[in-house]
Design goal:
Growth Hormone, Chain: A, 0% strand, mainly alpha, 2 domains, single chain, 14 helices
């Protein structure tokens, strides 16, 4: 009896000790694991956000120095606009190819060399400015456009590979915010660098590329592919099927999105040019802050719009039409009110707010229109057309400015009215966008 009574407490103590230790050890392991995951996710978000930021800086940062570039190199207004346009045309042509290569190999295999080319060509462009060689400068900008094609559009696809559901939306939201923030700070940064020397922005830009490059290499671990990539013939067949089914509203949406960016960058080119002329004679950082006003209106509106629309098709349709109506009205009023700077900037900001209402709605509809296997090609085509819009804005605005300032706004208000008609009659999402 005495032996049995002694053994029970020993068994009880040992048993209780094993149970009490197990949860504490699991908690000890799980808490650091969760903290590490959250920390790693934050660093991944930061790394991914640097890519669209670099893309925007490489183009928009040069807008404030275009009038100076024209004077220093002794070129025409049209030739100076090509510094923006040729970059965007090159990117637009290469984006679908970059998207296909990222599907066939990997996202990082495209992003890393693209950032290297983007930054390296920036240095070459800077030397072209130093040597007063317009040919070297414009050739380097075309190379930069090729590099740009493999940056932000591929980063968006990488987000889809890395995250799902709420995390994917959160990461895409941060990337869009980074893109918008880049648009706001670009003219200010460009003006600040110009205080050193007018071509300083060309040499400063590669430093941003190096930081983004290091972040992508060391902070992003790309998941392994589970499926074999589709041959290019299947891509083409998929595109045909999609446009056969959704072509009418997709083409209307593509036109509206590219037109919005055509007007946005054309307006920035227009405003940058007239601010340096009498009676305003505004240059440097002051001009940079003024150029940032319409951009800030667009970015703020786009961020709010993206947060509230979710998948609500009724709200999406309403906001798209309101945005285009604001663009039509403000640009039409600018035909007569472009001589008063305060009214003029207010009207351009109102037009940019309309753009901020329109673009997030189009993005949501276009990405939700097709299955994930086909989404990359459709979104890359959309990105290409947006780049074409950016490309043709400055030169066409410059050409129209040579006729008259009124012709500029008669043209763009008429185009906005056409876009409004197309979106109103052709783009009718259901109550819930997929």
């Amino acid at each position: 009896m005495s032996t049995s009574t002694k053994s029970k407490p020993k068994l009880t103590v040992t048993f209780t000790s094993d149970i009490s230790d197990a949860p504490s050890s699991k908690k000890a392991k799980s808490v650091p694991d969760e903290k590490n995951k959250r920390k790693n996710k934050i660093w991944e978000y930061i790394a991914l956000s640097t890519v669209p930021l670099v893309l925007v800086l490489g183009n928009s940062m040069l807008v404030p120095i275009l009038p100076t570039l024209r004077r220093e190199l002794g070129i025409t207004q049209f030739q100076s606009s090509l510094v923006i346009s040729l970059f965007s045309v090159s990117a637009a042509l290469i984006i679908p190819i970059a998207g296909y290569l990222s599907d066939r190999f990997s996202r990082k295999a495209v992003i890393v060399p693209s950032l290297i080319l983007y930054g390296g060509a920036g240095i070459l462009a800077g030397f072209g400015a130093v040597w007063d060689s317009y040919g070297i400068l414009i050739g380097a900008r075309a190379l930069q456009g090729i590099g740009a094609a493999g940056t932000a559009p591929i980063a968006m696809a990488l987000v889809g590979d890395l995250y799902k559901d709420a995390q994917e939306s959160q990461a895409l939201g941060l990337i869009e915010a980074s893109n918008g923030a880049g648009k706001v700070v670009s003219p200010i940064l460009g003006s600040l660098f110009a205080l050193i020397v007018w071509y300083a922005a060309f040499f400063a830009f590669p430093a941003f590329c190096v930081l983004s490059l290091l972040a992508i290499i060391f902070l992003i671990k790309e998941p392994k592919r589970k499926e074999e990539p589709k041959p290019i013939k299947q891509y083409i067949q998929s595109i045909r099927r999609i446009f056969a089914k959704h072509g009418r509203w997709l083409i209307s949406s593509f036109f509206a999105g590219s037109l919005a960016l055509f007007i946005l960058f054309g307006v920035l080119f227009f405003l940058s040019d007239i601010l340096e002329e009498p009676p305003y004679s505004i240059e440097g950082v002051r001009k940079g802050f003024i150029l940032a006003i319409p951009l800030f209106g667009m970015v703020t509106t786009a961020f709010i719009t993206g947060s509230v629309i979710k998948k609500n098709g009724v709200l999406i349709r309403r906001l798209m039409n309101i945005g285009l109506i604001l663009m039509v009205i403000s640009l039409a009023l600018a035909i007569w009110l472009n001589t008063n700077l305060y009214f003029f900037i207010g009207l351009l900001t109102l037009s940019s707010i309309g753009t901020g209402l329109l673009l997030p709605c189009l993005n949501t509809m276009i990405t939700g229109a097709v299955e994930k296997a086909e989404r990359g090609m459709i979104t890359s085509l959309y990105s290409s057309l947006r780049f074409f819009g950016v490309a043709f804005g400055p030169p066409l605005f410059g050409w129209l400015m040579g006729i008259s300032h009124q012709i500029v706004f008669i043209t763009v208000s008429a185009l906005s009215l056409i876009a409004l008609g197309l979106v109103f009659f052709m783009v009718k999402p259901g109550k819930q966008v997929q």
